[in-house]
Amino acid sequence: MRATLWGVRGSVPVPGPATERFGGNTSCVQVSVGESEFVLDAGTGIRELGAALAGRCRRLHVLLTHLHLDHIQGLMFFAPFFDPEVEITVWGPPAAGRELRKRLARYISNPLSPIEIGELPAQVTFRDVPQEPWRIDGVEVRAALVSHRGPTLGYRLSQDGTSLCYLPDHEPALGSDLARAPGGWISGLGLARGAALLIHDCQYTEDEYPAHRGWGHSSLPDALAFARRSHAQRLLLVHHDPWHDDAFLEALGREASDRWAHGGNAGRVELGREGDVLDLAGAVPSPDMPAVVVDNPSESRFELRLDDQLIGRAEYRPAGDSVIVAHTEVDAGHEGEGLGSLLVREALEGIRASGKTVIPTCPFTAAYIRRHPEFVDLVEASLRSQFSA
Amino acid sequence: MNDPENQEDDREQPLELILARNLVSVFSLPALLVDVEARIVFFNDAAAEVVGSPFEEIGTMSSEEWNARYGPYDERGAPLAADELPLTIAVREGRPAYGRFRVKGDRGLLDVEAGALPLLGPAGYHGAMVFFWVVPEDAGGMR
Fold first, then answer.
1. pLDDT confidence band for B3 (50 / 70 / 90)
2. How far apart are CA A211 and CA A12, in angstroms?
3. What pTM was estimated for this model as a whole?
4. Quick check: A150 contacting B, CB < 8 Å?
5. How far is Cα A5 from Cα B65, in angstroms, rounded to an integer?
6. Residue A133 half-sphere exposure toward CB, CA atoms < 13 A
7. CA-CA distance, A388 to A110, in Å (whole number)?
């Protein structure tokens, strides 16, 4: 599976020298799997992709997240649409009472367009995405509505255990605490869990976000918090604000890396650039249902489960306003997979959500907290100095 | 700590229900959410004031468990059939519904007015949102 970025800009194209390093075209990502071609969104970046595909691709799928202009503006300039030999299936979000074709025709019609949607020479089919995952040429495609203005999808493409998740317009933090909310109640998290590559919205800085809350996009801290919860192996931040020039984005990229490293997170985080090619062929397979951690108060332990089998535990006992984490272990067959860290991290987040502090008598938990300073504030106050740098 | 029954918190919820939870969690009007299986999957702090316990302590429960704990009751305190409750109508018929009845709260039996809205999205029915209002004692008994 290989992803090529043809447009990483949000809202409106911004060509010119100030944006030449990151690119000015709006959302478009090509995903190539063997001979199969998938196009995620049809912003202005799709124009150059069309030129690259012209004459060498007879069948392709365009997966639209939603119909805001920055995600469909390039449709009329996509060369394969004008080749009668090409079969194209355009997938998009369902909406009550209006077919996808008719909704797109509002743009590809007079007075906004010189041609009508029915005049496109290619063999084009328009389809609402199904509720359940479906397969295209051996690739499992999953779509789900996510938090953005209007019906908007996120996508997950999976093949041979490697998954790519695409959430370019997404505001999961709206009304939700991403660090503490139960995973099932976070928009898009089910799509992103364990993805080899997560391509996620990061339109705003932390300072810019309050003035844009509810607009459907994420700040850098929220994008990182979402990625942290998803356990994605690699994070690519996109949908750059049109007011952010190259110098600004270079600085934002450094901030993203610093924040990610400071949080002690594994994997990589970077800002997407037009022209980037990401080969996921060597990625570690990411199961659709990775290990999960659940609290089992009747046994006084957090349980690490994989395929519903208990494979690890973090034992605790209450102590007033604190919780003593006394022992953690992961079954021998799963050591070295980072699952111990997952178990401790989720246990600590569970304790934080309960409003209690932690007394880490377990050496592994104590060592984890020393490596992850974001949990030091969770340590019982009289012990906290032992964990501060 | 989470209640063991709350382990289902990790079940992936539809966006309609996620956004409804985000919305009602900031409302001062008591509200609860049911999912497509008619389980009570969330109620807000204002509702917790009425029933006497926060959601975090109680966790997800079936509508039968909820009714056994909190009612509804008629004006004489006798259990009411669930069939005509606003929630039941919203779930069964996919339309908004309104009703007035009594619930057993922390402070004994309370008159409440309730309105239920089905959560219908492009993919169909996902549950319902129920708002209720405790009728002040000086507003008169149940009509």
1. very low
2. 19
3. 0.76
4. no
5. 51
6. 14
7. 64
Q: From the CB of residue B43, how many other CB atoms can be counted at a distance below 10 Å?
A: 25
Under an 8 A CB cutoff, do B7 and A144 touch? Answer: no
Q: What is the pLDDT of residues B71-101, one digit of tens each?
A: 889 888 888 888 888 988 888 888 999 999 9
Q: CA separation (Å) from A111 to A71, A105, B5, B11?
A: 19, 11, 56, 46
Nearest CA in chain B to A145: B15
* Interface predicted TM-score of the whole assembly (ipTM), two decimals: 0.72
To the nearest whole Å, the CA of A94 is away from the closest chain B CA by: 6
A285: in domain: no
CATH of the domain at A368: 3.40.630.30
Segments forming the whole domain that contains residue A372: 292-386
Pair A231, A141 in one domain: yes
- Phi, psi for B24 (deg, rounded to 5): -70, -20
Written as six digits, the tokens of B54 are: 């926060």
The residue with tokens 């355009």 is A90
Contact A145 B13 (CB under 8 A): no
Same-domain status, A68 and A157: yes
Number of other CB atoms surrounding residue A177 within 10 Å: 11
Question: A229 with A301, same domain?
Answer: no
Q: Of the candidates A279, A310, A336, which is a domain's last residue? A: A279
* Residues A192 and A272 occupy one common structural domain: yes
Contact A157, A133 (CB under 8 A): no
Same domain, yes or no, for A28 and A163?
yes
Counting Cβ atoms within 10 Å, is residue B95 exposed (0-12), middle (13-18) or buried (19+)? Answer: exposed
- Banded pLDDT at A181 (limits 50, 70, 90): confident
Answer for the pair B102, B110: CB distance below 8 angstroms, yes or no.
yes
Pair A248, A311 in one domain: no
CA nearest A191 in B: which residue? B12
A96 and A205 inside one domain: yes
Q: In this predicted structure, what is the pLDDT of residue B141? A: 54
A-chain residues near B124 (CB < 8 A): 131
Q: Is the CATH number 3.40.930.10 carried by domain B4-138? A: no
The CATH number of whichever domain residue A245 belongs to comes to 3.60.15.10
Q: Is residue A284 part of a domain?
A: no
Q: Among positive and negative, which fits the CA dihedral A252, A253, A254, A257?
A: positive
Least confident stretch, A232-236, A274-278, A361-365, B7-11: B7-11
- Alpha-helix runs per DSSP H in A197-284: 220-230, 246-262
